[in-house]
Each structure stands twice: as C-alpha cells, then as structure tokens.
Amino acid sequence: MKLRMELQFFSQEKTEKATPKKRQDSRKKGQVAKSNDVNTALILLAVFLFLFLYAGILGDHILNMMGHIFSEYLRWEITSFTLTVILEELVMETAIVLLPIMLVAMVAGTAASMMQVGILFAPEAIKFKASKINPIQGFKRIFSARALVELLKSLLKISLVGILVFSVIWFNLDSLLLLSHKNIEAGFFEIAQLTGLIGSGVAVLLLFLSIPDYIYQKYDHEKQIRMSKQDVKDEHKKMEGDPRIKSKRRQKQMDMAMQRMMQEVPKADVVITNPTHYAIALKYEEDKMEAPVIVAKGVDFMAMRIRMAAEKNEVAMVENKPLARSLYSHGNIGDHVPEDLFKAVAEVLAYVYQLKNKLP
After folding, report:
1. Which of 2, 79, 106, 201 has the fewest CB atoms within 10 Å, i.e. is most exposed?
2. CA–CA separation, 299 and 277 (whole Å)
3. Which residues pair with 297 in a beta bridge?
C-alpha cells in the first residue's frame, strides 16, 4: 500500500518538460513567457527618443498656445458659450500635442510584446474566473515566492532609478540654480532637455534590468507548465484516441473498403476460385490496362460472398487452386497480376473469352 502511494506521488510530480501540445494549449490561454519590464523599458525609450526630435515643435506649440490664452481668452467675457469654445480649443490643442506621443508609445508597446510572444490573440485570458477574486487564492499569491521575487525586483528598480535621477540632477545642479536668471523659453527648453535626459537614462537602465527579468520569466513559465509522467501518458493516450473508438473506426473503414470491393465484382471478367476457400476477381480492358487487375479477393466467408456476387451478376468462375492461392498471396486489390502469373491468367481469360465468344 505504501509503495503504491509512493509510486502515485512520483507519477503526479511535475518533472517532465511540457509537450508541444501543452505549450500550444497554454499559449491559447495567454500563458506565455513575457516580461512587463521589457515593455515598460522600450515604451519609455521610444517616447523619450521621440521627444528629443519632437521637443522643438512641442515647445513652440505650447508657447503659442499659452500666448493665445493670455492674449485672447483673458479678454473674453466668461459665458456658457465662450467657456465651451475655450474648452473645445484647449482639448483640440492638447490632443495635437499628446496624440503623437501616445501613438509612439502604442507602437513601441505592441512591438515589445510581439518581440517576446509574437502575434497572439487569447480571448480566454480575459474571461472572468472566480478564482481571481477568491481571497484565499489572493492571499496565496501575495505571499508566494513569485510575489517575493517581484517585491525584490521593484525595490531594486526603485533604488537604481533613484540613484540615477539624483546623479543627473546633481551634475546639472548649477544650471538649475541659474533658471531664475533665464527667460521663460530658455528655462522651458532647459527643463525639457533635463527631463529627456533623465527619462532616456531611466529607460536604458530598465531595459538593462529587463534582460535578467525576461530570463527569469521564461524559466518560471517553463516551471509552471511542467507536466507529470501521468499527464504525459494521458495526453499521449488522448491524442491516440480511445482504443475502442479506434477499433470501431478501423472496423468502419474495413467495412467501407469491403463494400467498395464488392461493388467491383459485377464488373470483373472472371473469378478464380479454390473452389471454396479462395476467390479472386480479375478485370482486364485491353485498351486501358497493361495487364489484368485484381479488383477483389477474399478467403472463406468473403470468398463465398464474392462467388455469390459473381453468380448473381453472371460473372464467369474458373476453378484453379494453385492460381487462386498464388494470386491471393502475392497480389493486392488494385494491383496488376504478378508477372510470373501472366501466362496462367492469360490462359484463364482466353478460356473465359471463348465461352463468351469475344476472344480478342
């Protein structure tokens, strides 16, 4: 009993690598090796690199908008109509500023996801599951080893990002202290340049940190989809199918093949018999065939059915024990008669054609 329990335990232990089918099923459920840090890093890097190119246009647009606000809107009388016009114009101007940045972020995020998992559409991943709101399951997730790893990662990222930001500000402290002596435009571009430098530095740092995170996510994913020996056996059995179903399918295929074979017997020129144990039906069309073809063959009960079908459709039957055995042993349905039996078969066909008065 104890030995059986131990064997059962080991068979359920997940020690085997996932099979291709298991990987495919996991992918359909949205369970793939993916690091969110890679997405975050690439989005930040793309956005801040774009801002370096877009900063001049962005700054001019914001300055023009602020000038328009202070030169035009302050002189307007506040009514429901003017307030609507102001809000509409501000929303439009803000959209013009933000839409290119959002578009770059969306493209970068999509590219980062495709780099990791390729093109994937998994609607099952967003289905509602009661286990997601189960407090016991949530408690287990919070205090799991995965949660501890995520906490350590977050603390490391916050520390390194804080050090990087502090270092950039510290090295540019003199320039920041002189902002009060500069005009608004120069001060704006100074802050924008410093912000872009900090953002790009943080993005590069996160991208560097995302490499080991992606490796860990891949390792953790492989661990999550591992299978037990019993799982592998069950999957193999399922793919092969139930033996009873396979047997029924095989029997049905045999019945269909037999039915097709019996439909060819009435078209045969001759049936060579044993006389009771073997029956082989032959057909020969001089202008279409190089040699006679075996259209049906059978032994015992099937031989009896072939003989009955031949008798019913007035197909000639010739008794030749050695030839019947040889044709059954060396020829398959649909094949030409073996070369070493050509002469014997030709003699039989000649005899049949003489009986029908149509000797070629």
Report:
1. 2
2. 5
3. 280
- In sequence order, the β-bridge partners of residue 271 are 281, 317
Percent with pLDDT over 90 in the chain: 0
Which of 175-213 are b and which e, b meaning 16 or more Cβ less than 10 Å from the residue's Cβ?
eeeeeeeeeeeeebebebeeebebbbbbbebbbebbeeb
Asked if residue 259 and residue 187 are part of one domain, the reply reads no
Give the ranges where the chain is alpha helix by DSSP (H): 2-12, 20-28, 36-71, 80-117, 135-142, 145-171, 173-177, 184-224, 229-240, 243-264, 301-312, 321-330, 342-355
Say whether both 190 and 257 belong to one domain. Answer: no
> What is the rounded average pLDDT of the residues 201-217?
84
Give the mean pLDDT of 89-101. 83
Domain that holds residue 92: 31-118+130-226
Q: How far apart are the first and last CA of the chain?
A: 80
Q: Are residues 299 and 173 in the same domain?
A: no
Cβ count near 17 (within 10 Å)? 12
Q: Is the pTM of this model over 0.85?
A: no
For residues 161 and 258, state if they share a domain. no
Taking only the tens place, the pLDDT of each residue in 109-128 is 888 888 877 777 665 656 66
Give the tens place of pLDDT for each residue, 250-274.
777 777 877 777 777 787 778 888 7
Q: Mean per-residue pLDDT for 38-48?
A: 85
